[in-house]
Amino acid sequence: MPRLTIPNPFNLHTDVCEMCLYSLADLCFKRITLYPCLQERGHDKERQLEAQLLQKKLEEEKARKFKANPYPYTTDYPVVPPKPEPKPCTRAEGFQLESLVRHEVEQQRLMEERERMEREEAQRRIVRAQPILKEDPIPLPQKERKPLTEVQQFELHVDERAVQRSEFDNKVKEKEITYKRLREENEFAQKIEEEKALKQLRRTLVPQARPLPKFDRPFRPQRSKKQVTRPKSPQLQVNERGARRHPFMR
């Protein structure tokens, strides 16, 4: 038959013991005391920290002490490698740069240009007398005996256009005066006709009294027999697009 497991009680370092509870009760009465279990845990931590610091200090001191490796124990003579032959010293050689070549060519060109300018300047400094001129190098022109140009009167098209424009302006002014006179005559005749018609209307006009209202048949408002207006949804394309996009929502 299976037997039930009976657990045994155990204590942890983090649990507060009964003595600590008594110390907690002392704290309520303003008595500063430490828990014995907490004191023991604090001492253990301090001892561990001191041991770690001591171990680290010993390792640092051991690392500072130099200890050479011992010579191997053997009866044979050690093999000493021969001394290598000395190599000749390295001799530096200059670089053949294209910029140096271009610099030399440019310096050579500048030197030649300077020499050429100096030679030209020296040639210009030499004094040379001008030769005697036997003939005048710039002879004066001889006057020609031609008759003077006769100025003839010329006709401009602007003069003809000015005459035509003046005739046109006169015709326009005459037309404006004629139209203005006709307009005034028409307005005067129309005014006389209106006055005559008004006088004739006043002669034929007879005053009439306003009829009395009919009190035997008063106005009685009645209820309308029309049906109530029913709203109708417009056929918009938005509904059709929504139905095509979401066919399973309805």
From TrEMBL:
Residues 154-230 form the TPX2 C-terminal domain. The keyword Coiled coil applies. Residues 204-250 are annotated as: Disordered. Residues 220-229 have a biased composition (Basic residues). InterPro entries: TPX2_C, TPX2_fam. It comes from the Eukaryota. It is found in: Cytoplasm, Cytoskeleton. Residues 100-130, 165-192 form a coiled coil. Keywords: Coiled coil, Cytoplasm, Cytoskeleton, Microtubule. GO terms for molecular function: microtubule binding; protein kinase activator activity. Pfam families: TPX2. GO terms for biological process: mitotic spindle assembly; regulation of mitotic spindle organization. PANTHER family: TARGETING PROTEIN FOR XKLP2 (PTHR14326:SF44). Belongs to the TPX2 family. This is TPX2 C-terminal domain-containing protein. It comes from Aegilops tauschii subsp. strangulata (Goatgrass).
